[in-house]
Amino acid sequence: MASSGGLADVLDAAARIVADRGVDGLTMNRLARVTGLSRATLYRQSGGREAVLDALAGSGVDVGDRAGTRTRILAGAREVFGRTGFEAASIEDVAAAAGVGVATVYRCFGDKDGLVAAFLDEMGPRRAARDARDAATGDLRADLERLAEKMLTSMHADAPLVRLLILETLRGGSLLPRVRAKSPTRVIGVVTSLLQQHRTAGRLRDLPPRELAQAFGGMLLAFGVVAPILRGEAASDPARTARTLTTIFLDGALAPGKRRARA
Fold this sequence. Notes:
By secondary structure, this protein is mostly helical. It contains 15 helices and no strands. Helix 13 (188-200) crosses helix 14. The longest helix is centred in the C-terminal third of the chain and has 22 residues, at 209-230. The N and C termini lie far apart (89 Å).
């Protein structure tokens, strides 16, 4: 069916293909033949196969679960950002890495700034800190050990991207405010809220929770970023390191009997 009628005609044709052949039968080559459009025109009008499927799903056509689209785009962003950095990366690069149309990226995230924000918010260290806070048990030592282990594990898994964030912060650039706001090194607010819960319950001394969080966060960064990422040392075992730094944080480094009472 030859057509020059724009996106509505493309979607009508795509819906017929899905009805006749199923979702797997919808290819851009087949859609180009049915519509009579060149592939270049078809991509320009529709944004690509994933964009067409998203549009069909939005109109009520059963095309299966589309929830994975956002996850694929963020995975593509991880690949591209890790390779080129934030500034040099383009929406087109991310779309290609994710196997989706450019229009689909814009539809999911609005623009590049929105994509960077979503990507940083989904990075492991921040998510790990939130999960540990939300799963607080009331056992201060266990909660801190769990948070520390999750953070250290995530920092190790995301080491190239954590390094990228540090470099982007030092270099500056138009995305610096977004990087600073969402960086995994900026988890102090999450740790503060966890410590506040325990301070309110009387399990901590009457010290500002944010200052305590800064101290604990500094230890996490020393073990999770400075040593393995900036100095190239072998990453230590997260569980053992979590126990060690939690003990130092809660009990101090002085041996029993050597601690002096505060004046």
